Amino acid sequence: MRYGQDSGYGFDPMSRMRGATVVKVLLLTNVALYILELVAQATGYYGLMIGLLGMVPKLITDNHFFWQFLTACFLHAGFFHILFNMLALFFFGPELEWLWGKVRFLFVYLAIGILANVFAYLLNIHATTPTLGASGALFGLLGAYAAIYPNRMIIFMIFPVKVKYFVLFYFIFSLLATTGLEIGGGQGVAYAVHLAGIVLGFLYVKMRWGRLSLFFKNNASRIRLWYLKRKYRHLKIADEILVDDEQHDRWNRYKQ
Description:
Layout: E1 7-8, H1 13-17, H2 21-43, H3 46-53, H4 57-63, H5 68-71, H6 79-100, H7 102-123, H8 135-148, E2 151-156, E3 159-162, H9 163-178, H10 191-206, H11 209-218, H12 220-231, H13 245-255
Parallel strand pairs: 1-2
Antiparallel strand pairs: 2-3
């Protein structure tokens, strides 16, 4: 997977939004669920909603609420939380959807969101504090964007900065925060999710998928042989060492 490394300020996001169907659906879904959260707060069901759909590690560990790895990606803890997340989706999502296509974009978005939540879960599988937000998926898009267009310029607050430096700053800050070495606050922010998202998005672009596919293809027969030996390990033949063609033929005849 190879991409050009554009520089400058990139493109007008509105020009890509016209065809960004998946981005539009994700925006509407997140906003709709945030409105549902507000309704739940007003009617006294917010705790139940978050307990069922937010990522609560203890509930996953004890009660196997595995769907929370996905559903937590669509809930947010407040107005500014969803505002900044949706702005990130609006600015970085359309071009990646245009570049990857709708199916791949949706798959990458959801997969990174889920895996980032799994990473945060594994750090404390008995935590009772819920984790909410699309941050894992969105930082994944940001990491991928930086890998594709490292020299693109963006405006951070009022300062122009290259995407690669912006992502590097967030990576270092999230790493320090995850390890407890950050200076200042950070309570209530799932920096582990941010960290995992950046790494996964960057790796998705940089991984040599062709070589990886070739590796698995070349080793498929060996993996299958190992599986069959494990499956039939209670039989004597599974204990033999296949050192020559005759022994290999015996194994093949047995499988038939």
